[in-house]
Amino acid sequence: MKRKGIIFFIICISFFSLGMGPRIDEAKKSEPLFWPPPPYEAKIEFLYTVSKPDDMQIKKGFFQKIKEFLIGEENDALIRPFGIAVDDGGKIYVTDRANSSVSIFDPKENNYSVIEGLGSRKFESPLGIAVDADGNVYVSDSVLMRVYVFDPKGKFLKEIGAGNILQRPAGIAINKQARLLYVIDVLESKIHLYGLDGTHKKTIGGFGDGDGQFNRPTSLSISKNGNLYVVDAMNSRIQVLDKDGKFISKFGKRGDMSGSFANPRGIALDSDGNIYVTDTLFEVVQIFDGNGRLLLVFGQRGLQAGEFAIPAGIAISNDDIIYVADSYNQRIQVFKYLKAGLKKTK
């Protein structure tokens, strides 16, 4: 035992030494980029892109280093980022369908870690991700038909969705105050409502094009007052429900002009209640006010800063930093909502 303890101590010292090297260069940035462009008043500002921990000057966590020492260094670059969440402390959580993993970037603590599954059982298709008020991480896997819950350090806690209730879980969201978990089932065109203890409370919606019905919904976001904003993808619209699933309103239609949808995917709300929707075919982010009125469109198809290739998930922090999973460009793009602008748009 003493010999094993000495070996482990030597390994620990080695990893601490690795973390004391020169600082990584500044995160990727480009020339100032705003929407709308000058001479109009700027409302959205591009900040930087992230494809790996180095881009945020983040070091790998201690146990991540130990793992790579024992089994070899892994490629920690994003390949197909899909779902994205950001917690109150600024941690960024990204599901990666190609890596079958969750990457966690913590710029405040200068730390990077990965969740690959629970023990020997790995993720197969992680899609949705959310974080509760205690920092626990919830990950939906569309193939394993479960939502898996991990503590803030990545330790597996429990699974939600036993009994074949979930057929293809995708987007998820948490009402932190009410301690409720909403899980979209794409295949069943339903939303399942759970308590955070895993208790199934009710099913919302079902297949159709009527109010409160869905056709392949993909994601949802929760407003400050607890209302649900649901991307009803194949109905080409956004539906607004109360926290119990009662229909409130809707907006959007299929089309090829700004303000309409081709294939809406992700949704998020900023601090003023403006609604951001990614569209994988238009390859833009469209911003609407609370009444569904188009305010602004930013982005276009391409490889450069502010351009997208199949944008998927989107998340907005409490301080209005916007994170977009630019899936086929293998990166997260980061923007800033400039509060002086959108709410004044006529």
In short:
The protein has 346 residues and is mainly beta. The chain has helices at 2-18, 62-71; strands at 34-35, 44-50, 59-60, 81-86, 92-96, 101-106, 111-115, 117-118, 121-122, 126-131, 137-141, 146-150, 156-160, 169-175, 180-185, 190-195, 200-205, 217-222, 228-232, 237-241, 247-251, 264-269, 275-279, 284-288, 294-298, 311-316, 321-326, 331-337.
Protein described:
There is one protein chain. It is built from 2 helices and 28 strands. The protein is mainly beta and 346 residues long. A 5-stranded antiparallel sheet has the order 1-2-28-27-26, with no helix packed on it. A 5-stranded mixed sheet has the order 3-7-6-5-4. A 4-stranded antiparallel sheet has the order 10-11-12-13, with no helix packed on it. The N terminus is likely disordered.
Strand content: 35-45%
Number of helices: 2
Overall number of strands: 28
What structural class do the secondary elements suggest? mainly beta
Low-confidence stretches: 1-28
What's the SSE pattern?
HEEEHEEEEEEEEEEEEEEEEEEEEEEEEE
From the alpha-carbon coordinates, what is the Rg to the nearest angstrom?
Answer: 20 Å
On the 0-100 scale, what is the average pLDDT? 88
Helix content: under 10%
- Side-by-side strand order of the widest sheet: 1-2-28-27-26
